[in-house]
Amino acid sequence: MSDLSRPEGPRIMAVANQKGGVGKTTTAINLAAALVEQGMRVLVVDLDPQGNASTGLGVEAVDRELTTYDLLMDDAPLDDVIQKSSFDGLYIIPATVDLSSADIELMSNEKRSFLLHDALRQTAMDKFGWDYVLIDCPPSLNLLTVNAMVAAHSVLVPLQSEFFALEGLSQLMLTIREVRQTANAGLRIEGVIMTMFDRRNNLSQHVEKDARDNLGDLVFKTVIPRNVRVSEAPSYAVPVLSYDTNSQGATAYRALAKELLSNHNKLAA
Ligand code: ADP
Ligand code: MG
């Protein structure tokens, strides 16, 4: 059954936006956990040298012996780079600051845009039976982010409910178009998710309306509220879904997972 629903292996999603602090890592971690709760087998790939997804999922710096860097640059075997996270059933390939040099080292490699793509399509991936792979991108449109877009089926774009939120989007869309033309014709936009939404704030409402007017159905119906529990969870090294399971943030990420799954027709009737 699960094999029929994903004949070509897992659905790989790059969580990308070149702006920092818009909720990429928060969305990667918590959407991944919410998908696990729905019975999916999920892997997070930390592709940001800051390693925030690794920290937020309980992989401490001392335990990051083999990382995304080793996967990309040294052909490290998947078995050695994939680790259990602090959330039961969720796995992660962690990152360290090493990864920042990969961006430069990659320049001279003729397969520079395809390293992550090739790494995630090793036959060794099959035995894990992943349903979803979520790639947490750095806040930049550099070669690492291009690697994520080349490896991915789709791009999930967190958009902070703030002034100027839409401004950076045209550059992001341009990069997606370039990747389509050169390396990954099938790359789709999974959707735009409004993050840190404050219902009492007119500005949030305004930005949401703007996004829906401009982007239409690309914007998820689910909106992620600004919720202090979401921002506290990483310091306990767990997703908000286990830190405060009934919080507004946890509830919103569960709704996002369900919306995504129903978009993919993966929910059982
Ligand atoms: P990015 O990965 O895009 O740089 P983060 O996911 O790290 O962004 O989020 C930036 C900051 O905002 C973090 O401190 C995070 O805890 C906080 N944050 C993200 N989403 C929410 C939310 N829904 N409510 C409250 N704080 C949030
Ligand atoms: Mg981040």
Write the layout of secondary structure elements.
Layout: H1 2-5, E1 11-15, H2 24-37, E2 42-46, H3 52-56, H4 68-73, H5 78-81, E3 83-84, E4 90-93, H6 99-105, H7 115-120, E5 132-136, H8 143-151, E6 154-160, H9 169-182, E7 188-195, H10 202-215, H11 228-232, H12 240-243, H13 248-263
Parallel strand pairs: 1-5, 1-6, 2-4, 2-5, 6-7
Antiparallel strand pairs: 3-4
Helix pairs in contact: 2-13
The structure holds adenosine-5'-diphosphate and magnesium ion.
Description of the molecule:
The protein has one domain (2-263): P-loop containing nucleotide triphosphate hydrolases (Rossmann fold), CATH 3.40.50.300. It contains 13 helices and seven strands. It has helices at 2-5, 24-37, 52-56, 68-73, 78-81, 99-105, 115-120, 143-151, 169-182, 202-215, 228-232, 240-243, 248-263, and strands at 11-15, 42-46, 83-84, 90-93, 132-136, 154-160, 188-195. A seven-stranded mixed beta sheet has the order 3-4-2-5-1-6-7, with helices on both faces. α2 (24-37) crosses α13 (248-263). The site of magnesium ion has 4 residues, from α2.
